[in-house]
Write a structure and sequence with these properties.
241 residues, alpha/beta, four-stranded parallel β-sheet, two-stranded antiparallel ribbon, 34% helix, elongated
Length: 241
């Protein structure tokens, strides 16, 4: 669902996650606007920031912070305040990956409990970011504090029915897998590359971590996606690098 598996441009569940994140963020805008606040939304993303980057690229948020880049909290507050001032409803939105952390800070864990792979459970970075933005806001808002609405989307983005893409892709992947079985092809997994279904060597899925290429897709200074030419890009813009 985080789209963080190497060897493929697309992972099953990613489209549904994006659709829900965009929809829920737009729903929460009404509360942020009526109270003229910052809206801080925490989404999944332990090592990779795709689930924050792509909804922001689609217009769901003004800014996003991702695990691949240690962000400057004051810079985030500065640009969020500027975004809020230019919004007629006086609010701005940031999506925060659960694995993100700021300069001088550490990854935030919700508990010491570990999963089957030994990873501690992440969660709570959104609250930390929200509190910091509230305390820093007078510096960029003529001495007046800006309050914050902080929301963790958590499992809301991965429950319920899949969207259209996530109904079609698993069928195609399953078809490719069965074809490999019938043709005695070994050592390959179903994958998607530049919007085409294909196979990928199984070793590619364990050889490295798939993360956002910050130089290609993330503006470190503006804390948002890079909006350059999308010509000849795959369906979800970001290639498997």
């Amino acid at each position: 669902m985080d789209n963080d598996v190497p060897g493929t441009d697309y992972c099953i569940g990613f489209s549904t996650c994006l659709s829900r994140t965009i929809s829920l963020t737009h729903s929460l805008r009404t509360s942020a606007g009526s109270h003229e606040r910052f809206l801080v939304i925490e989404v999944f993303g332990r090592y990779a920031g795709f689930t924050a980057l792509l909804p922001t690229m689609a217009g769901a948020a003004n800014r996003c912070v991702i695990p691949e880049h240690k962000f400057d909290m004051e810079k985030l507050c500065e640009v969020m305040t500027a975004d809020r001032k230019t919004n007629p409803s006086l609010y701005s939105v940031v999506l925060v990956s659960e694995g993100a952390h700021w300069q001088g800070g550490e990854v935030v864990y919700s508990s010491d409990e570990t999963d089957m792979f030994g990873h501690k459970k992440l969660g709570g970075i959104g609250e930390h970011v929200g509190n910091a933005l509230r305390e820093l806001s007078p510096k960029f808002n003529n001495g007046r504090r800006i309050n914050v609405i902080s929301q963790r989307l958590s499992y809301l983005v991965r429950c319920g029915d899949p969207d259209a893409v996530d109904s079609l892709v698993p069928m195609a992947f399953g078809n490719i897998a069965s074809t490999c079985c019938w043709t005695a092809s070994r050592g390959a997994w179903s994958a998607c590359a530049t919007a085409n279904t294909t196979t990928s060597p199984s070793r590619s899925f364990t050889s490295k971590k798939k993360v956002v290429d910050v130089d290609k897709y993330y503006d470190r200074d503006r804390l948002r996606p890079i909006y350059k030419s999308f010509l000849q890009k795959p369906l979800f813009i970001v290639n498997n690098d």
